[in-house]
Amino acid sequence: MSQKIVPNIWFDRNAGEAGEFYAGILPGASAHVSATYPDDVADWQADFAGEALTVDLDVDGYLLTLINAGSEFRPNPSVSFMLNFDPLRFDGDRDAARSSLDAVWAALADGGTVRMELDEYPFSPRYGWVEDRYGVNWQLILTSPEGESRPFLIPQLTFTEAVDGKAREAAVFYASLFPDAGVGYLAVHPPQSTGAEPGTIMFGEFRLADQWFSMMDGGPDHDFAFDCGVSLEVRVADQDELDHYWDALTAVPEAEVCGWLADKYGLSWQIVPENMGELMERPGAYAKMMEMKKLIIDDF
User: Fold this and answer.
1) pLDDT, tens digit, for every residue of 117-137?
2) pLDDT score, position 81
3) Domain ranges of the chain
4) Can you tell me whether residue 11 is helix, strand or coil?
């Protein structure tokens, strides 16, 4: 089954460079330009005419799309990417898994910002959280081969500020919209917790369209929240399916533009047809898209 939900990450004119960087350091990764700006863009986008618009990054079979745009947005820790270094992926060799984790960590930390030091923690013998040179946040963890298998890459949503405490509610809501979905393991902050509201989510998992996500309540006092720096692109078969996700998710009218929306938690989504590449090859398609809020397939 093809990947239905594709995280999109916003870059400031350097998505191509970033794609090459990630392809060079992440196990089983490759990158290629998947779309370019047309030559007849609006005046305010003139510098991008003919340049890369999106770069597809394949990480061990998981697709991320890097958006080549301007400085309007930047990724932040509200959406990070878990990298699960399972010894079973290294023929059961725990030392090889750890060495691979350490090598990726060193590359991501170079020019970046360490948010949690790479160290031993109660939940893992090797874990760290780093924001790389492009502002993308990664959590690297050495997992147990005895545990339940998880994909190498899993997006994590961190609910902060006004939506702190909403992680469980959001996971249930999202799971109600997608096929092959459900809420999995949940760990909550205990009554004696300090720095977090007891009962809020310390770590949780959920599936949407048979894809794993994780989530946590991050607290009300952070200086970051969901925005367009990272969005979730949902690929749909037809207008009816597009309408289904759009109508269920959109909650901020001023955020509706070119197929983008923000939901009631502030998380950004893009609801786009599976054949978007084909649609964009039609005469005047880019200009038509720029005039739309919800995408209308027949209007391309």
Assistant:
1) 999 999 999 999 999 999 999
2) 98
3) 5-75+226-299, 79-219
4) strand
Find where tokens 């090889």 sit: 96
Q: Say how far apart CA 299 and CA 293 lie, in whole Å.
A: 12
Q: Is residue 232 within 8 Å of 261, Cβ to Cβ? A: no
Please give the pLDDT value at position 241.
98
Could you give the count of Cα atoms lying within 13 Å of 87 in the half-sphere of its Cβ? Answer: 12
Q: Which two tokens stand for residue 92?
A: 């059961």
Question: What CATH number was assigned to the domain covering residues 5-75+226-299?
Answer: 3.10.180.10
- Parallel/antiparallel/unpaired status of strands 211-219 and 153-160: parallel
The span from the CA of 208 to the CA of 181, in Å, is 4
- The pLDDT value recorded for residue 39 is 81
CATH class assigned to 79-219: alpha beta
Looking at residue 44, its pLDDT comes to: 72
* pTM, rounded to two decimals: 0.95
Q: What's the N-to-C CA distance of the chain in angstroms?
A: 27
Q: CA 289, CA 83: separation in Å to the nearest integer?
A: 35
Q: What per-residue confidence (pLDDT) applies to 2?
A: 85
Residue ranges in the chain whose pLDDT is less than 70? 1, 41, 194
163 CB burial (10 A radius; 0-12, 13-18, 19+): buried
What pairing do the DSSP bridges indicate for beta strands 268-273 and 260-262? antiparallel
Q: Environment class of residue 198 by beta-carbon count within 10 Å: exposed (0-12), middle (13-18) or buried (19+)?
A: exposed
CB 140 within 8 A of CB 101: yes
Alpha-helical regions (H) of 110-145 = none
d(CA 9, CA 122): 31
